[in-house]
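User: My advisor, Dr. K., asked me to get a structural model of this assembly before our group meeting. I'm new to this, so sorry if the format is off. These are the inputs:
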Amino acid sequence: MPLSSLAAVCSILLGVGSARAEEPVELRISKWADPSKLIPVSMSGFSGEVDSVVRFDLGIQGFSFVGASEAGYLITGSNSGRVEGHVLEAATKVHVLDRAYSSGSMRIQAHAFADDVIQAVTGKKGISLTRIAYKVDAGINNEVVVSDYDGFAANRITQDNALVFAPAWAPGRRMLYYTSYKLGNPDIYSHDLTTGARQIVARYTGLNTGAAISPDGQRLAMILSKGGSPDVYVSDVRGGNLVQLTRTKEDESSPCWSPDNQTLCFVSRLQGRPSLYTVSASGGAVKRLMTPGVANATEPDWSPDGKSIAFTTQRGGANFEICVVSPSRGDVKELVSGEDPSWAPNSRTLVFSRRSKGSRVLSLLDVPTKQVKDVKHILGSSSQPCWAR
Amino acid sequence: MKRTQLIFSLALGLLTALSTVGCKKSPKGPTYIPGAPTRAPGTEPPFGSTTPSGGKPGNGAERPDLTGGRPNVQDPGASGTPINPINPNGDPLALSGLEMFENMIMDPAALASYTVYFEFDKSSVRAGENGKMEEVAKVLRTGMADKLLIEGHCDERGTEGYNLALGERRALSLREYLANLGIGPDRIRTISYGEARPAIPGSTEEAWSKNRRGQFILLKPKPLK
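Assistant: The format is fine. Below is the predicted structure of the whole assembly, which you can bring to the meeting.
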């Protein structure tokens, strides 16, 4: 079942006024084109869970809540029995959205409304109905968990009583790849979330980890140490047709794909300290990706629009910062404290983990506006998040 | 075929061991390990239809030309010479298949006092740890049917994915070190736990220094009934 079907199920249009909503699109987009500017909105009429869901969703996707007199848009609605919502552009008095939702939980209807607000105001697709995967501590071991992007509706995917690492989504599919120590060795598994079927795709002696499926869904990048050192390999998605891409004496880690499926970015200690490198997915020279002013770069994740690679840098001790670098221009921006960032499908929101009092929690970061919100912390110490996209 | 290779390298290991008896110096510089496989023979384990298929030998795409991919990185360690040995081809020592380590009994106590500690973010063996390596090698020379599992661990001062690779690199360094002392590398399996299994919990320098470690677990053959 495609991920988008959830959205399709619940955003059935019941209201009227969509024709009115279509006319001033050009004007709206130009007015709110700068993604670093928070879009001021007022909101009234919702209550309880629906109110908090819509505030959370809009708050982490570039909106701020202000009084009606300062708002660019007035959001009104109700949630008795079903969610109904309206958006009025303050300056023009034009209704840009009037919609009611008929199926799914109130929570899902609220997420769907938030995404419709984002679409109507910015012209961009929201992420309110997306999901994330991560690992959660369970005693000395951990398990893979999938939840809504805000941490609700969490489900344990594994029950292996073993260490697991690095869950990664197959793009556009309800399929995860991860490393599990279930059989006494760190092996890479594929796990179909629809059928529950699991398969081992890499079980070589030594380390098998860092699975990353190419955006076209055709190939698997991973770290294997069967050759005597942790190196980057690619294979088909079942682990066959294996090709070794790096042959360094040092350890490589955390490969990720460029959106055009042509290039891999990964971490190596080729020149001493951990740094970002790239290599063609079909083999060739390894190139350093410079991150000026930032040392100890690990855990890269390439944004779906290709414009930005998020990564972690390490300061002294166990202090980590989330950074982004433009692969074409090479300029680095430091964002917030945290580690292991993963891009949302909108190429502007990140999920990452941060250490807090001996535990780890997940947070969301809206990169352009630097707004941060915590993912609901339900099951325990959580890390290595991966956003479904 | 696999058995022949095993016996061959065991014999070579014994020969090398005999030739190095009495030599207390730590290995210096790259040393060619005779009989060490440069590729992994039998690394494809049996796992029914889900067995990963390895690359085809002789496939040109298998060995891309990496101009930046074969560095001989010198570790600026104590002696100034690279402590991690590599063979003249620059290839690391490939690992034997997991099936070579099945049906063995783990004995974590036998070598527990020889746990090796690493410097922060380093995988090379410190000069001060040589004595432990000699002792581990001695045990493996005595019990020729025994094998070894090396666990690589890290402190918490690294990201999780990076630490998993660093822990493996540490375990592999210890394996290479033992190979240089004449122990057949195909008797040794590695496993990294990254930062997931600290010896001492906490965020102090003392805890960190005890958590950056390699642990040796002796693998004994099951006794015949």
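One thing worth pointing out at the meeting: Confidence is low (pLDDT under 50) at residues 1-26 of chain A.

User: Perfect, thanks a lot.
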